[in-house]
Design brief:
By secondary structure, the chain is an alpha+beta fold. Helices cover about 50% and strands about 5% of the residues. The protein has a four-stranded mixed β-sheet with strand order 2-1-3-4, covered by helices on one side. Helix 1 links the parallel strand 1 and strand 2. It starts with 12 loop residues before the first strand and ends in an 8-residue tail after the last helix. The mean pLDDT is about 100. GO terms for molecular function: glutathione transferase activity. Belongs to the GST superfamily. This is Glutathione transferase. Its EC number is 2.5.1.18. Keywords: Transferase.
């Protein structure tokens, strides 16, 4: 994959993304729209470790210098950034049969907005901080580890309760697969990176497995590359050993600060 230096498409949707939980939001929905309506899109892989997202051509698309971002060349080359804004825009414009969304005058439209906002303001940043303090911080800070891993657990407890008697997060009856689910898929798929086992949340685990059965979800998780881990697949070898070592540190930090799991 050559290093991107600018936009390359002249029509359709152009997706600028990388293999992260937020990046998969856009690629999964685009694959769903492609399967349902024939919507075509072009992808450029933005290697965030190389800071391509900080280059002037990229920040002209997203001033915040983050992935994902899209450019709709069929709508005046409109740039849309932030994963949840991308979900909203793509469904408003291209999900004409409301297969993955809800009509604005439907109360489930507002319910979906609420859960998407909950992901955007809660699960994403909190789980991201858990990943940072557990995996990437140059020093292991017990307070930070137990604080963010514990809050991630609390949030997943809320989601598990929501899904206890439902197949999907929003919608009548047992729910309808929608962008409320898509917003969470990448994060839930990587929860074990925080040392939390998805087995702690059986309803969430069943929901994730149900979503993974969709071909478009499987394809979306390959754009631009598949995730290195999945909560539905046991870690093996050195990766599994590393997670066990880190979990011991997290558990020690929880004990040190008197952490006790509660949700909500």
């Amino acid at each position: 994959m050559s290093r991107p230096t600018g936009l390359i498409a002249s029509k359709g949707i152009e997706l600028l993304t990388w293999s992260t939980p937020n990046g998969y939001k856009a690629s999964i929905l685009l694959e769903e729209l492609k399967e349902a309506y024939g919507l075509q899109y072009t992808t450029q892989g933005i290697r965030i470790g190389q800071n391509i997202q900080k280059e002037p051509w990229f920040t002209a698309v997203n001033p915040n210098g983050r992935i994902p971002a899209i450019v709709d060349h069929d709508n005046g080359s409109l740039a849309v950034f932030e994963g949840n804004a991308i979900l909203s825009y793509l469904t408003r414009r291209y999900d004409t049969e409301r297969r993955f969304s809800f009509a604005p005058d439907d109360d489930d439209y507002t319910r979906a907005e609420s859960w998407i906002g909950w992901q955007h303001g809660g699960v994403g940043p909190i789980q991201g901080q858990a990943n940072h303090f557990v995996r990437f911080a140059s020093e292991k800070i017990p307070y930070g580890m137990q604080r963010y891993v514990g809050e991630t657990e609390r949030l997943y407890g809320i989601l598990d309760s929501r899904l206890k008697d439902r197949d999907y997060i929003v919608g009548p009856g047992k729910g309808k697969y929608s962008i409320a689910d898509i917003a969470l898929l990448g994060w839930v798929n990587g929860i074990n990176f925080t040392t939390i086992s998805i087995d702690q949340f059986p309803s969430v685990k069943s929901w994730l497995a149900r979503c993974w059965e969709r071909p478009a979800v499987q394809r979306g998780f390959t754009v631009p590359n598949p995730p290195s881990i999945s909560s539905l697949k046991p870690q093996e070898g050195e990766a599994a050993e590393k997670t066990r070592e880190l979990k011991k540190l997290v558990d020690q930090a929880k004990e040190q600060y008197g952490y006790k799991y509660t949700s909500p």
